[in-house]
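User: Okay, second chain of the day. Same drill as before: sequence in, structure tokens out.
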Amino acid sequence: MRVAVFGLGRMGVRRAELLAEHDAVAELIVANRAEERGREVAARLDAAWLPIGEALDAPMDAAIVATATATHGRFVEQLVTRGVPVLCEKPLAVSVTESRRLAQLIAGASVPVQMGFQRRHDPGYRAARDAVASGALGTLYSLRLAAHDAEPSPEDYIPTSGGIFRDMHVHDFDLARWLTGEEVLQVFATGSVRHWERFARHDDVDTTAIVLTTESGIPIAVTGARHNPLGYDSRAELFGSRDSLSVGLTRHSPLRSVEGGEPQAPTPVGFLDRFETAFSAETRAFLDVARGQAPNPCAPEDAVQALRIAEACERSRRERRAVALEEIEA
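Assistant: Same drill. Structure tokens below.
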């Protein structure tokens, strides 16, 4: 396969590294705007560097879009129009309206576009989903999700991030739908700046608490923070009538128990090491999807629905009320 990676930030470079290790990838193209960095990455991975414009026109069997958030839609549309299967990092687009338009375009083109919600490929989260789907957990009473960055975002990133609900919690919103197998009907979200004033300067928050309610009434509690001094944290707790289980709670979790037990090294310092296994599995899955060997594990419609929940949470925070998902365009 000839595969191209667009964008060489942290995520783009990691995707390129994973592709370079895969036997199915015979030729790798990397494309970005900073030529010096692009050529350096290409040389390290035995890949070809091309300017973005040339890369978009180059022959390829598949592509990964890991460019700046606001540009995802443009790249996806150009590639899909050419018939190129795409793995797009979240989000598909910055608004629900544009995401819906692109999802419809993709459906009409019959070209696979897999969305980059890597937690669906994490072994722990997959085991939890299997426990719910198989009935091993019994009736799912409630779900708790925790999302804590190790270090707060640099200030120059905040204005273009879309805010904490769209940038960080959108992964949790995808998990909520995927783990329960249900749609979210209502949200109540609150947030504040507890420490990092850089977020206040851009009308964002550094700490959140959210309650989602699903179709059957499952309450889902989500908490988030832009800083955790012990490391990057992504965890879940599921409580059912037959069993209760956790995801992400290990001796390496960045959480100290007052009843004894310090986190053991190594603790995750970022999402790339916390989800190293998941990113690898997700990239392999995409190559199978691109070759027509597997169904798409995360479609554009999933990205649309996660973004709708994020927008409902932002409205809830601002208006200080519960927001029904039907208030957000479908």
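The longest strand covers residues 140-148.

User: Thanks, on to the next one.
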